[in-house]
Write a structure and sequence with these properties.
The chain has helices at about 5-10, 15-25, 30-45, 50-55, 75-90, 100-110, 130-135, 160-170, 190-205, 225-235, 250-260, 290-310; strands spanning about 60-65, 90-95, 120, 140-145, 150-155, 180, 215-220, 240-245, 270-275, 285-290, 320, 325. Helix 1 (about 5-10) crosses helix 2, helix 3 packs across helix 5 and helix 5 runs parallel beside helix 12. The N and C termini lie far apart (about 70 Å). Helices cover about 40% and strands about 15% of the residues. The chain has a 6-stranded parallel sheet with strand order 2-1-3-4-5-11, covered by helices on one side. Strand 8, helix 11 (about 250-260) and strand 9 form a beta-alpha-beta unit. It contains 12 helices and 12 strands. The longest helix has 17 residues, at about 290-310. It is of the alpha/beta class and about 350 residues long.
Length: about 350
């Protein structure tokens, strides 16, 4: 049985026109109501009819999504939440997974997405030439990672401020020798590792702590990388009493390395992550929470709104709220280990 827009309206107790505005990202609908309508449309299996609309508008009713690692939690979560919004508004998703430098170069050289999509959601940070290539498509562009780019609408968070809150928590507990597990910005042009590192350095400077390059290790934003980086830090002559991991996945790897070395958390070493991964509460990880799924939904909403008002240009950037979540992996440094 075909589900109509009227069915969604009845399920949510609003008018069909309100449902239409919500699903197309138009203004005049509260975010709470928009979320309810999107959820109801997904549950009922409603999708807008595209045949008549496509003939009238010339649109493909397809959104291109470009990701560096579709299998990683952050990108998968953003993609899933954005796709829900696109689907409810009657759009399909055309996915390009550019996990290798070769795949990335091939994509931006050939631009197979041209004339096949109405808009692009980029979950990677394009360099100047790549950004120019995407702008040449002449379609609305959005991103959820890194800083602002000309011609893109941006949905993101304050990475630097989030890192500051994590490291300040460790300083306030009395830690002086604080390590950091990060990820390199190359070759994906990420600004996130740089911004979070700067937050780490800013807090150390404010506390009068001289930064020690030996206390920084590359974890590659993976659990395995975090375990390897924590092992490197533990091999130092003077290992850290606390560690800030730039992602929860790396923090989980650090916890595994500490357990393997028979060190207690937080009695021997404190650990703070970043993201609030879906498993972070399970392992009791103190972290900085960012609304990952909400960023995907908001980016999708902004793209749909831009499609409905193309002459207005890209919507202004949106900074989503973050919060510090205190759990069980941090404590004051153990007597005799404070330095």
């Amino acid at each position: 049985m075909t589900v109509s827009i009227t069915d969604v309206a009845e399920a949510t107790g609003v008018s069909a026109s309100t449902v239409s505005r919500a699903l197309r990202g138009r203004p005049g609908v509260s975010e709470e109501m928009r979320a309810r309508i999107v959820a109801a449309a997904a549950e009922l299996g409603y999708t807008a009819s595209r045949s008549a609309s496509s003939l009238a508008s010339g649109r493909t009713y397809t959104i291109g999504v470009v990701v560096p690692y579709v299998g990683r939690w952050f990108f998968g979560t953003v993609l899933d939440s954005a796709e829900t919004v696109f689907s409810a508004a009657g759009y399909d998703v055309l996915l390009y997974n550019l996990g290798s430098p070769e795949a990335r170069k091939r994509f931006f050289t050939k631009l197979p997405i041209r004339k096949r999509v109405d808009a692009v959601l980029s979950l990677l940070i394009p360099d100047l030439e790549e950004a120019a290539a995407l702008r040449s498509l002449g379609v609305p562009l959005a991103t959820t990672v890194g800083g602002a780019r000309p011609g893109f609408t941006m949905v993101g968070i304050d990475d630097r401020g989030g890192a500051e809150s994590a490291v300040r928590h460790l300083v306030n507990l009395g830690h002086r020798r604080i390590g950091m597990i990060s990820g390199a910005s190359e070759p994906l042009h990420w600004t996130t590792p740089l911004d979070r590192r700067q937050g780490y350095l800013d807090v150390l400077a404010d506390a009068g702590i001289e930064p020690d390059p030996a206390l920084e290790a590359d974890g590659g934003y993976t659990v395995e990388g975090g375990e390897r980086a924590m092992t490197e830090l533990l091999a130092l002559r003077h290992p850290p009493t606390a560690v800030f991991a730039q992602s929860d996945e790396m923090a989980m790897g650090a916890l595994r390395a500490l357990r393997r070395h028979r060190l207690r958390v937080p009695e021997d070493v404190s650990v703070v992550g970043f993201d609030d991964h879906e498993l972070s509460e399970v392992v009791g990880l103190t972290t900085v929470a960012q609304p990952v799924a909400a960023q995907g939904r908001e980016a999708a909403r902004l793209l749909l709104a831009w499609l409905d008002g193309p002459d207005a240009g890209p919507p202004p950037p949106v900074e989503m709220p973050i919060r510090f979540v205190l759990r069980e992996t941090t404590a004051p440094p153990h007597t005799g280990r404070q330095r």
